[in-house]
Amino acid sequence: QVQLVESGGGLVQAGGSLRLSCTASGRTFSSLTMGWYRQAPGTGRELVASISRSGAYIHYVDFVKGRFTISRDNAKNTVYLQMNSLKPEDTAIYYCNANPAGGGEYWGQGTQVTVSS
Predict the structure, then answer these.
(1) How far apart are CA 29 and CA 53, in angstroms?
(2) Residue 49 host element (H or E)
(3) What distance in Å separates the CA atoms of residue 82 and residue 21, rounded to the nearest whole number?
(4) Could you tell me if 105 and 2 are in contact, meaning their C-beta atoms sit under 8 angstroms apart?
(5) Per-residue pLDDT tens for 59-84?
(6) Which of 26, 57, 78, 80 has its CA 20 to 30 A from that of 108?
(7) How far is residue 83's CA from residue 37's CA, in Å, rounded to a whole number?
């Protein structure tokens, strides 16, 4: 089992920044591929960014490229999502996701991000 706890969401004006954190427990953190997803009201959950176990490989979806940065600190069992130049359309619940090397998938409880215009 992997437990994921997110933090860092909140209300911010358009153009502002937030940093989300997700701390994992229950498995060796460096064995987990980590990702951030989001879900806006009335829509499905969508990938935002992912990072490989070592941090060497990173993927962003087009709508966040140049604005968001995913990173991880394996010593702190934590993955981050730095979000800059936020837009109202970034408003969503953001979820942390973990994929162990041996299979399976785990989700955090989500953290609300609201961007006002």
Answers:
(1) 8
(2) strand 46-51
(3) 9
(4) no
(5) 999 999 999 999 999 999 999 999 99
(6) 57
(7) 13
Tell me the C-alpha distance between 14 and 60, whole Å. 21
* Local confidence band at 102 (pLDDT 50, 70, 90 cut-offs): confident
Place of tokens 């961007």: 115
Instruction: Give the strand pairing for 68-73 and 10-13.
Output: unpaired
Distance CA 81, CA 102 (A): 25
Phi/psi of residue 108, nearest 5 degrees:
-85, 180
Instruction: Report the alpha-carbon distance of residue 72 to residue 80 in Å, rounded.
Output: 6
Radius of gyration of the chain (CA): 13
Token output for 97: 């996701």
Q: Look at residues 77, 67, 60 and name the one whose alpha carbon lies nearest to residue 22.
A: 77
